[in-house]
Model the fold of this input.
Amino acid sequence: MTTPNNDLRTLAREFRLALEARLTDASMWEYRLPSKDEVAAFCRSYLDALFPLYYAKEDVDNPHAAGFLAQLDLQLAEQIVYAMRFDLNCCGKPVPPNLSEAASHLVEMLHAKLPRLAQLLGTDLQAALKNDPAASGYEEILLSYPGVEAITIQRLAHELYLLKIPYLPRMMTELGHSHTGIDIHPGATIGESFFIDHGTGVVVGETATVGNQVTLYHGVTLGAFNPTSRRNGGELVRGLENKRHPDIEDGVTIYPGATILGGDTRVGHHSVIGGNVWLTHSVAPYSRVTVKDPELLIRSKTQDSDKDWFLGSAI
Done:
């Protein structure tokens, strides 16, 4: 993974070289950055291909499908090479001569995961149909539900994250975030049958774990406290080494606007977390956590003048 670099002059130099590599020729391609456009195109094609080509666990013998997948492999391998080469140069490490072979090997390792990822997508579709009465069928869910797009991209990015491929996993999940409003870090570990209803404003942090058959509604945050854990030299402890996000066990439902914080916080299985709850400690299985009803002021407009009604409502 990328070593944090606090020297902004060095950062500016790295990205100047990357810009020159893009604007000139291949003589400086060792500083070429992975392309956001290419990563976005790969994600789009991946979303199109994963379920129909891998869910049934059949060999891809159609020449058109095989050619499509081969093109996807080349597209991903090229971006992996750019990411790894740029990362090594930024860290001052030597670039191995067989980097392209290493990238192809990583793509092969990812291929072995695709049938399982397709099966997980199938469980996510089933969870959406089971939990959303507005869903007319699997086709509508697969074609239009933002939660399905976000989690499908995140599951692939998570596999790249575990392979320690720099840059690309976060680029992928941020593309999903920009399309759906759902921000799931590629480091988060998520079980099967995961359903995000509506989705806008959902945040799931890097070290969060989510069990099976979990449902989140819009505006839910599985976040961290102010990340103050630091080493002796004052540097933040980064990545999975710093457990700072909560664990959500199987069968939990979390309603809109709930915020659950902290690496020591665990929500027990089959619990329900109500809307707008602020939770910073663990709760046992089968818990029901809610906020007391607020005191509401309800006045009828017909009983007062427009001015009095408006001012009274604002007080």
